[in-house]
Amino acid sequence: MCGITGFINLDKDIQNSYYIIRNMCKTLSKRGPDEEGFYFSRHGVLGHRRLSIIDIENGKQPMNFTYQGNTYVIVYNGQLYNTNEIRGDLLKAGFTFKGHSDTEVLLKAYIHYGYNVCKHLNGIFGFAVWNVGKEELFVARDMFGIKPFYYTIKNGNFIFASEIKAILEYPDCEAILDSQGICELFGIGPSHTPRSYSI
Q: What are the residue boundaries of the structural domains of the chain, listed by start?
Protein backbone atom coordinates (compact mmCIF):
# COMPACT_ATOMS: atom_id res chain seq x y z
CA MET A 1 0.00 0.00 0.00
CA CYS A 2 1.25 3.50 -0.85
CA GLY A 3 -0.18 7.00 -0.64
CA ILE A 4 -0.42 9.64 -3.35
CA THR A 5 -1.32 13.31 -3.21
CA GLY A 6 -0.82 16.56 -5.07
CA PHE A 7 -2.36 19.71 -6.45
CA ILE A 8 -2.48 21.58 -9.73
CA ASN A 9 -3.06 25.28 -10.34
CA LEU A 10 -2.71 26.52 -13.92
CA ASP A 11 -3.04 30.19 -12.92
CA LYS A 12 -0.46 30.49 -10.13
CA ASP A 13 3.17 29.56 -9.58
CA ILE A 14 2.94 26.87 -6.89
CA GLN A 15 6.41 25.34 -7.09
CA ASN A 16 7.41 26.80 -3.70
CA SER A 17 4.81 24.69 -1.85
CA TYR A 18 7.14 22.32 -0.03
CA TYR A 19 5.55 22.68 3.40
CA ILE A 20 2.04 22.18 2.05
CA ILE A 21 2.83 18.96 0.18
CA ARG A 22 5.02 17.71 3.03
CA ASN A 23 2.14 18.13 5.50
CA MET A 24 -0.25 16.43 3.08
CA CYS A 25 2.15 13.50 2.72
CA LYS A 26 2.61 13.20 6.47
CA THR A 27 -1.05 12.25 6.83
CA LEU A 28 -0.38 9.28 4.53
CA SER A 29 2.61 7.92 6.44
CA LYS A 30 0.81 4.73 7.51
CA ARG A 31 0.16 3.95 3.83
CA GLY A 32 3.83 4.38 2.98
CA PRO A 33 6.21 4.22 5.95
CA ASP A 34 9.41 3.57 3.97
CA GLU A 35 9.95 6.59 1.71
CA GLU A 36 8.64 10.02 0.87
CA GLY A 37 9.07 11.82 -2.43
CA PHE A 38 8.01 15.11 -4.04
CA TYR A 39 7.88 16.67 -7.48
CA PHE A 40 7.61 20.42 -8.04
CA SER A 41 6.91 22.37 -11.21
CA ARG A 42 5.44 25.80 -11.86
CA HIS A 43 1.83 24.59 -11.96
CA GLY A 44 1.97 21.04 -10.60
CA VAL A 45 3.08 19.56 -7.26
CA LEU A 46 3.02 15.82 -6.52
CA GLY A 47 3.77 13.82 -3.39
CA HIS A 48 4.16 10.13 -2.62
CA ARG A 49 4.52 7.90 0.42
CA ARG A 50 5.94 4.48 -0.36
CA LEU A 51 5.76 1.01 1.07
CA SER A 52 8.85 -0.49 -0.58
CA ILE A 53 8.22 -4.03 -1.81
CA ILE A 54 9.22 -4.45 -5.46
CA ASP A 55 12.32 -2.94 -7.09
CA ILE A 56 13.25 -0.81 -4.10
CA GLU A 57 15.87 1.23 -5.96
CA ASN A 58 14.19 1.74 -9.34
CA GLY A 59 10.61 2.11 -8.11
CA LYS A 60 11.01 5.43 -6.31
CA GLN A 61 8.23 7.99 -6.78
CA PRO A 62 7.31 10.46 -8.05
CA MET A 63 8.81 8.78 -11.10
CA ASN A 64 9.51 10.73 -14.26
CA PHE A 65 10.39 9.80 -17.80
CA THR A 66 11.21 11.99 -20.78
CA TYR A 67 9.87 10.78 -24.10
CA GLN A 68 10.16 12.60 -27.42
CA GLY A 69 11.21 15.78 -25.64
CA ASN A 70 8.39 15.83 -23.09
CA THR A 71 8.54 14.82 -19.42
CA TYR A 72 5.84 12.79 -17.68
CA VAL A 73 5.66 12.34 -13.90
CA ILE A 74 3.61 9.69 -12.08
CA VAL A 75 2.47 9.03 -8.53
CA TYR A 76 0.84 5.62 -8.19
CA ASN A 77 -0.69 3.31 -5.62
CA GLY A 78 -1.69 -0.17 -6.65
CA GLN A 79 -0.83 -3.43 -8.28
CA LEU A 80 -1.09 -4.42 -11.92
CA TYR A 81 -1.80 -8.12 -12.43
CA ASN A 82 -0.83 -7.96 -16.10
CA THR A 83 2.48 -6.09 -15.68
CA ASN A 84 4.48 -8.63 -17.70
CA GLU A 85 1.97 -8.60 -20.55
CA ILE A 86 2.00 -4.79 -20.78
CA ARG A 87 5.80 -4.70 -20.49
CA GLY A 88 6.02 -7.15 -23.40
CA ASP A 89 3.75 -4.97 -25.56
CA LEU A 90 5.79 -1.88 -24.69
CA LEU A 91 9.09 -3.62 -25.49
CA LYS A 92 7.67 -4.46 -28.92
CA ALA A 93 6.76 -0.77 -29.30
CA GLY A 94 10.38 0.24 -28.67
CA PHE A 95 10.31 1.15 -24.96
CA THR A 96 13.11 0.04 -22.65
CA PHE A 97 13.05 -0.43 -18.88
CA LYS A 98 15.67 0.28 -16.25
CA GLY A 99 13.90 -1.69 -13.51
CA HIS A 100 11.04 -4.14 -12.97
CA SER A 101 8.51 -2.06 -11.03
CA ASP A 102 4.92 -1.84 -12.23
CA THR A 103 5.18 1.94 -11.71
CA GLU A 104 7.61 2.22 -14.61
CA VAL A 105 5.39 -0.04 -16.72
CA LEU A 106 2.30 2.05 -15.92
CA LEU A 107 4.03 5.36 -16.69
CA LYS A 108 5.28 4.13 -20.06
CA ALA A 109 1.91 2.52 -20.78
CA TYR A 110 0.28 5.92 -20.28
CA ILE A 111 2.80 7.52 -22.63
CA HIS A 112 2.09 4.83 -25.23
CA TYR A 113 -1.70 4.43 -24.90
CA GLY A 114 -2.61 7.93 -23.72
CA TYR A 115 -6.13 8.44 -22.41
CA ASN A 116 -7.02 4.83 -23.26
CA VAL A 117 -4.45 3.39 -20.86
CA CYS A 118 -7.03 2.06 -18.38
CA LYS A 119 -8.49 -0.23 -21.06
CA HIS A 120 -5.19 -2.11 -20.93
CA LEU A 121 -4.90 -2.39 -17.14
CA ASN A 122 -5.90 -5.39 -15.07
CA GLY A 123 -5.41 -4.54 -11.43
CA ILE A 124 -6.17 -2.25 -8.55
CA PHE A 125 -4.87 1.28 -8.81
CA GLY A 126 -5.12 4.99 -8.17
CA PHE A 127 -2.66 7.20 -10.01
CA ALA A 128 -1.95 10.63 -11.46
CA VAL A 129 0.33 11.49 -14.39
CA TRP A 130 1.48 15.09 -14.86
CA ASN A 131 2.37 15.95 -18.45
CA VAL A 132 4.94 18.69 -17.87
CA GLY A 133 4.99 20.03 -21.43
CA LYS A 134 1.22 20.22 -21.87
CA GLU A 135 0.63 21.08 -18.17
CA GLU A 136 -2.06 18.43 -18.12
CA LEU A 137 -2.97 16.01 -15.33
CA PHE A 138 -4.44 12.58 -16.03
CA VAL A 139 -5.93 10.75 -13.05
CA ALA A 140 -7.54 7.32 -12.76
CA ARG A 141 -8.84 4.84 -10.23
CA ASP A 142 -9.72 1.18 -10.66
CA MET A 143 -13.38 0.69 -11.46
CA PHE A 144 -14.28 -0.81 -8.06
CA GLY A 145 -12.46 1.83 -6.03
CA ILE A 146 -10.31 -0.71 -4.22
CA LYS A 147 -7.46 1.78 -4.32
CA PRO A 148 -8.96 5.09 -3.21
CA PHE A 149 -8.73 8.38 -5.04
CA TYR A 150 -10.31 11.57 -3.67
CA TYR A 151 -10.25 15.05 -5.13
CA THR A 152 -11.70 18.51 -4.76
CA ILE A 153 -11.41 21.85 -6.53
CA LYS A 154 -10.77 24.84 -4.31
CA ASN A 155 -9.85 28.39 -5.36
CA GLY A 156 -8.54 27.26 -8.73
CA ASN A 157 -6.61 24.31 -7.29
CA PHE A 158 -7.30 20.70 -8.24
CA ILE A 159 -6.32 18.79 -5.09
CA PHE A 160 -6.17 15.00 -4.85
CA ALA A 161 -5.06 12.27 -2.47
CA SER A 162 -5.45 8.65 -1.44
CA GLU A 163 -7.23 9.80 1.71
CA ILE A 164 -9.44 12.77 2.47
CA LYS A 165 -7.32 13.73 5.48
CA ALA A 166 -4.45 14.63 3.12
CA ILE A 167 -6.77 16.98 1.21
CA LEU A 168 -7.82 18.55 4.50
CA GLU A 169 -4.17 19.53 5.09
CA TYR A 170 -4.37 21.83 2.09
CA PRO A 171 -5.01 25.47 3.17
CA ASP A 172 -8.68 26.54 3.00
CA CYS A 173 -10.05 22.97 2.88
CA GLU A 174 -12.31 22.09 5.76
CA ALA A 175 -14.26 18.95 6.63
CA ILE A 176 -18.03 19.02 6.10
CA LEU A 177 -20.02 16.15 7.59
CA ASP A 178 -23.11 14.88 5.78
CA SER A 179 -25.49 11.96 6.28
CA GLN A 180 -24.73 10.24 2.97
CA GLY A 181 -21.04 10.14 3.76
CA ILE A 182 -21.70 8.61 7.18
CA CYS A 183 -24.04 5.99 5.65
CA GLU A 184 -21.40 5.03 3.09
CA LEU A 185 -18.72 4.76 5.75
CA PHE A 186 -20.76 2.32 7.83
CA GLY A 187 -22.42 0.60 4.88
CA ILE A 188 -19.60 -0.12 2.45
CA GLY A 189 -16.46 0.79 4.39
CA PRO A 190 -13.42 2.04 2.48
CA SER A 191 -15.15 1.95 -0.93
CA HIS A 192 -17.49 4.76 -1.99
CA THR A 193 -20.11 5.32 -4.59
CA PRO A 194 -19.18 7.84 -7.31
CA ARG A 195 -20.26 11.14 -5.82
CA SER A 196 -19.00 14.59 -5.01
CA TYR A 197 -17.84 15.58 -1.57
CA SER A 198 -17.79 19.24 -0.62
CA ILE A 199 -14.62 20.23 1.21
A: 3-188
Long-range contacts of 118-121 (CB under 8 A, 24+ apart): 120/82, 120/86, 120/89, 121/80, 121/82, 121/86
Q: What is the pLDDT of residues 23-44, one digit of tens each?
A: 999 999 998 777 899 999 999 9
Annotated catalytic residue 2 = yes
Residues pairing with 150 in the sheet: 161
Question: What's the CATH code, domain 3-188?
Answer: 3.60.20.10
Q: Give the Cα separation of 102 and 86 in Å (integer).
A: 10
Helix, strand or coil, per DSSP, at residue 53: coil
Grouping H, G, I as helix, E, B as strand and the rest as coil, residue 41 is: coil
Does pTM top 0.85 for this prediction?
yes
Under a CB-based contact definition with an 8 Å cutoff, are residues 109 and 90 in contact? yes
